[in-house]
Amino acid sequence: MTGKAKPKKHTAKEIAAKVDAATTNRGGGKAGQADRLGQDKGGHAKLACPLCRTPAPDIKSMQIHHEAKHPKLPFEPDKLVKLHNTTAAPAETSSSKPKPGVRGSLKK
Fold this sequence. Notes:
The protein has 108 residues and is mainly alpha-helical. The chain has helices spanning 12-23, 33-37, 59-69; strands spanning 47-48, 55-56, 81-82. The protein contains three helices and three strands; from the N terminus they run ααββαβ. Strands 2-1-3 form a three-stranded antiparallel sheet. The termini are far apart. The model has no long low-confidence stretch (mean pLDDT 74).
């Protein structure tokens, strides 16, 4: 008797999915931190639609989204929500509480 509807060999689709998962950078950890912040690499969403908050990587993609999803409203690029802050914000130096250290302990 054979197994209960278990495939005996791997399919080409399954092998291709495993190769893709092993070789594609998904942006995890420190290796993908700059990618997630949108500083050096492209590909991640940098803009969001002000009406429905749909993310898009660039103006052209956002314009295509706007024409498809919101055809009755005019496209205004200046009202797009920027997800990545390109200018460095001043760091807050004074705080009322001390910052927690390792595992939440309050070190001074």
